[in-house]
Description:
Blueprint: H1 10-15, E1 20-22, H2 26-32, H3 41-46, E2 60-62, H4 63-76, H5 82-89, H6 98-103, H7 108-122, E3 126-132, E4 136-143, H8 152-169, E5 178-180, H9 189-196, E6 200-201, E7 207-212, H10 213-216, H11 229-243, H12 253-264, H13 272-278, H14 283-292, H15 297-313, H16 320-326, H17 332-343
Helix pairs in contact: 2-5, 5-8, 12-15, 13-14, 16-17
Amino acid sequence: MSEPSTDLSSRDAAKGNLGTIRLLFLGALIDALADVGKRIDPILREYGMFRSQMDTPYEFVPLHRYVALVEAASEKFDRPYLGLEMGASFGLAEMGPLYALLRASGNLRGALNYLVLFQSRLQTRTLFDSRIEQQNTTYFYRIEDERIWPRTQDSEFAIGGYATLIRQLISARWAPVSVHFEHSIAGREERLAQYFRAPVLGNQLNNALVIRNEDLDRNLASTLPSEDLKLRRILEWHLLDLMGPGATPSESFVSLTRDIIGRWLGRTHIDCASVAAELKLSDRSLRRRLTDEGTSFRELLQEARKERAKTILSKPGMSLAVAAEQLGYSDTAAFSRAFKEWTGVSPGSFPRKIED
């Protein structure tokens, strides 16, 4: 395993480009390592955190330091499945005031939609979104800063935690259709499949839970009146006020466009007109604003494809066909030509990350 990065660019920090996470989630780590007692305190201090901070669970800490802390704790205390341990114990009660709102959501889809709504208030620079298909819906989780790596424990905590929440909301016997992880799961397959009770795939583009639509539309096992729309609105208003505003992107149209491209890339068709519509601008207006800021839509899309291509191809076992499809290329030959122009080497010669 490579060393986790704990110090990212101070320039990024000044621009607000680094992700943050609520201290609420630090509690999951401390609870999972309760058996090690005070031996956890030195490693907390090493990553700039303290047990006493749990008195302010809604304070933010740097996301890269939190992820590196969990990875280091997993290694130090020989807990290769620490993320799963955290996910297994992190349920509705640990969500604080969100507990009541999720319980009052009516059905599972409504509850998960609230988690999507509150994502940027719980953890910034992180994608949690869904794609609805005929029989299933896929919920994606991915930290958008690719420099934060490795992040195996965080990914397994997040997906494992979502599974725990769902089991508490609808049934302890619930299982997803399948589970995806962006990291290699070599040697971990049996434990992961046992935890999720479903097929688990590694080296995927995103961490994800694939859920049956019939499960999402099931009524919750709730003691709160799920049909009470007024109650849900009151809870939502109070929570939004408590947690404060979500992450707001820079006023730069370059930054706004990059944000949208990053969220959509590999999930839907991207062109300037659709991005402009998302920003409530005409195609022509967005192009003009980007030109004023010294770039173009095509340059931003190519830049995003280049960075995502490097990320995809750095993962062991990722095929060129999958990479080409996810980046919007018609065939592997077109993708290979573009990749060589960007990097000077063919996709097959690009170095891969080393996994345990």
